[in-house]
Each structure stands twice: as C-alpha cells, then as structure tokens.
Amino acid sequence: MVTDWGAHMFDIVQWSLDMDNSGPVEVIAPDGKEHPFLTYRYDNGIVMTHEKWDWNNAILFTGTEGELRVQRKKLETTPASLATKVIGETEKHVYHSDNHYKDFLEAMRKRSKPICDVEIGHRTASVCNIGNIAYRLKRPLQWNPRKEQFKKDDEANALLGRPMTNEWGIKI
Predict the structure, then answer these.
(1) Would you say 100 and 91 are in contact if contact means Cβ atoms under 8 Å apart?
(2) Which of 11-25, 32-46, 156-170 has the weakest average pLDDT?
(3) With 149 labelled, which of 32, 73, 74, 83 sits at a CA distance of 20 to 30 A?
C-alpha cells in the first residue's frame, strides 16, 4: 500500500524528474517474476519502483555516474564525489526551496503560486492512488496523465473515485 510517506517520497521523485505537471504512463503490480516491486514507467523511459530497503522512507536514484540516496535532511552518494559536484549553468536544475512554510506565506502575500501548489500535490497523490489501484487489481495498467484516466480499463477507472452521497454531493 502506498500511503503518506509514499506521497512524500514520490513528490521528490516527481520534482526531480520535472513531472510535477504530469506523471507515469504505466504502473505494473508486483508479479513475483519480472516485476518484484510495484513499478512505474514514465513516457521518457525512466522507471521507478516502490520497495523497501535499508533506509526507511527514502529514495534511491541510480544514474550513469552513480547513485544518490535521499532522505529528509540526509543525502549519500556513490561515489562520494557526487555530493559536491556542481551542476553547470547549462545543465538541468530543479527549483529550490529551503523553507516551504515561508514560501507559502510569501505566495499568499504576493498572490502567486507557492513552490508546492495544489496541482503538484494532486499529481503526487495520483501517483500513490494509481499504485494502490494496481496493487488491488494485481495487474499492469496504462495511465494517461493528461486525461488522468486509465486507458481502456473501466474496472481501474471505476476505482479512481466513488459516488457522493446526497448529503455530501455537489448541487448545481
């Protein structure tokens, strides 16, 4: 099951992949064979898995130059020199925030979007939700992040929400 810490970790992955306005295109339930863990595939070919390992609530990025292990307020790299490598002017940068609370208050003052606005939170929650649906259905699912629906899968799409009761429904 993907719950609260899943959202915190997937939020960092979505941010680092520049997918805050999108998401994976496929989610594959663990099958005990080719996919031992819940597996997400992005349109650009990047693969993300949901699995337990030595560090609780952490992310492991594996790239061509080594690995980054990221946890709240903790970073380890292999090789160690990656931790001090400077990102060049023309290389990909992600937005920086050292204080989300201050950023949120500043956005209210300026009437602007905070660094982690509601759409980013929604997209992160969607990654968790579609993972939980794959866990429940125990099969691969094709996801359209633009339409926010599973492709040609009524059973999976039915699990994206639930009917509202009259007491809590939206009246037009």
Answers:
(1) no
(2) 156-170
(3) 32
